[in-house]
Amino acid sequence: MKISFNQPVFIPWGGFFARLMSSDQMVLLDETTLARGFTYVNRNRIKGPEGEVWITVPLKRKGRGRQKIKDLEVYEKERWVKKFLLTLKHYYGKSIYFEPVFTVIRAAAENPGENFLSLTLALLDILKTGLGIETELILQSRLGITGRGTPLLVSIAKELGAHEVILPYFSEKAVDCARFRDEHIRVRLLRYLPPQYPQFWGDFLINLSALDLFFCCGRDGRAVIEKGLRFYDLP
Q1: Can you give the C-alpha Rg of the chain in angstroms?
Q2: How does residue 217 score in pLDDT terms, banded at 50, 70 and 90?
Q3: pTM for the complete prediction?
Q4: Which terminus, N or C, of the chain has the lesser number of Cβ atoms within 10 Å?
Q5: Which domain, by its residues, includes 47?
């Protein structure tokens, strides 16, 4: 059993899906507290004629203190959804892959309720399905395991019976990988080097949301992501 971990994030980049497709299961750490300041949890980039276009999901924060991701709510959701859908249609409406995926994105975004996690999971499932990835997503909150840092990840890995964990390449500095080895769990680091693919609007830009990849390449986006995989085993 190979597992990976990630916070639930809004329309993430290809590196997220690189780890997802390389795992049997991915645990979404929805018990994590939203970071102060800049975070990719509720924002990512697509592409327009002038370059990067940031899309940010506004969150209800006033008077709520530090919030766990599972408890976040979208601020003025109806207004934001309208802007979000118009933005996608404006920049990608001429894509041959646009209409089928836009239909399901619209249904997911317009779903009643203001819960950010529900929106994020629905959009993740659309991209996962569109890219032909069958890996199971598991919420930390459903496992009933809490904690922080490496001990949390080790506890989750043991609970799921994992023999291998796949971590982002630069996480070696933040994660005590020896804790996994002590439990006889192999650690592999995945470095994702985004390959070029045909994009709209001029020169190629890296590190955009995988939504850009899908609108440009459709299901073939999976093969693009696979080209960017680089694995490193820890001794």
Answers
A1: 18
A2: very high
A3: 0.96
A4: C
A5: 2-163+181-190+221-233
